[in-house]
Amino acid sequence: GQEATEVTLKTEVEAGASGYSVTGGGDQGIFVKQVLKDSSAAKLFNLREGDQLLSTTVFFENIKYEDALKILQYSEPYKVQFKIRRQLPAPQDEEWA
User: Fold this and answer.
1) Distance (Å, rounded) from C-alpha 34 to C-alpha 36?
2) Do the Cβ atoms of 13 and 40 come closer than 8 Å?
3) Strand order across the 20-24 sheet
4) Model's pTM, two decimal places?
């Protein structure tokens, strides 16, 4: 038999992925079940049947409030990572007595 080689790939950032279905869940993980030939999942993301989805990053630019809320609520029980932008207060001029 042939040894299977395992690689972890990071796809380019693209607009919406569609045209694929997944299977699995729980401790077995989530796997790509089917990919439509001319879909964005196939063409932009190069997803293939049998690929394991390890994580996904959803960008919040131009997202509808309701959609952002749903995504955040659904992800509550799971391990997540946030990328944040924070406004820092302008440093005050300190007067030394």
Assistant:
1) 7
2) no
3) 20-24, 30-35, 52-53
4) 0.77
